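Researcher: Structure prediction, please.
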Amino acid sequence: MKQTSDKLIIWIIILTQFASPFMFSGVAITLPQMGRELDASAVALGLVESVYLGLSAALLLPMGRIADATSREVLFKIGLVGYAICTFTISLLPDIYTVILVRAVQGIFAAFMMATGMAIISHKVPKEQLGRTMGFCIGAIYAGLSAGPLIAGWVTEHLGWRAVYILTFVPLAISTALAVWILPHQWKPMEEKFDWFGSLLICISIGLLIFGSASLHHGHGGFLITAGVVVLGLFFALQSKLTHPLLDLQAMKANKDFSHALITQLFMYAGAFGVTFLLGLYLQSVRHYSAQHAGQVLVLGPVLMAIMAPICGRLADRFNKRAMTSLGVTMAIISLALSLQLDDQSGLAILIAIILTQGLGFALFSSPNMAIVMSSVPPSQYSLASALGAKMRSLGMVLGMILITTITSVYLGEQSIDDAPQQYMQVMDTTFLIFIGLLAVACWLSVTTIKDHKVTTTHRETSNATEGN
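Model: Predicted structure follows.
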């Protein structure tokens, strides 16, 4: 009976992994129509995605700590209920500023789910099957990414952008009902000390970076970005001095497998994930594709990810996980190199090559890297590891979106993309070059980890042989 219940819980969580990425990729397709209806600038449209990712990233680590000390299941259900309500609410909003505000609240509830979902699964799955299960989770995430452009494109074209949020609410409501029914709801009081000040600092820092990047064409944008960096530095400085830090830097430094996988994940998502956002606007505002046709093109990469992620998860249980992540980063670099060839007349062939290459890169990277993260810590730290893995993924997305928003602010200011398509092409070229640099760092980290791991393994084998003699 318990085994059946555990399997059902796992599948409920896998189902919910679909929702958040669907809202990211689906919203990206709706943005041009939303911008025209609500008279929003390109920078404001970027904020619709940035505040969502930023708030979820900022709160992932605090939520992971709280979940380990209280109840993962209760926090997961709170997040799911709040996320569903926000999704429906956005469909009713009259202007771009309230959309940005509710998207920020939705990002907060997303942090509840992301910090706990993988941790609940990791607690219920044997370690030798973790890669396969993570593959299903990653597959669900990429299924959401793939369904987003396709479904949202069709719905936006025929029913309008608001209908995307209304239809998304339906599976969220079903998932909420199932989660409330099957997941336990026992809450235990938090006994350990919690770093509330550190949590506040990380939220303030990310908020300053996001809004600073959006207002860089004004005089105060640079000041906000500088303040965000200073607050972030203060956060890290305080963490090393606290007895109960939000982020145990010493423990992370000691666990090299864990820390390297997290840092590699940060740079991978910073350098690759924003490409879909840029291409969605490019197809509709520069190439004048309809929302439906743009969705049909963008869906190819996530479909490949959804198919390949479970397969790569199985392979990660049998082969070298680090070699697979290195190959994945390399594929993403190739995709960006192809993206630099785009102009306002580019054909479908190069677009499809870019999207499929990136899709394969993410599939090769994501499942093995998350398996490394979760298998590097004891069960008592699963929520924290899950939160850190999701946080690095989200922080990478936020960093990518901050870069996009910053460069868009410099080249376009308050102009719309429809009014300045050539400036938007400059935004894309500049951003892609910076993304290649970030992925080069990720590739270097991944390859270095392979070499370090081989040296450590050889040293351990030599030591064992010496002790045996």
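Model: The CA atoms of residues 288 and 378 lie 51 Å apart.
Researcher: Thanks, that helps.
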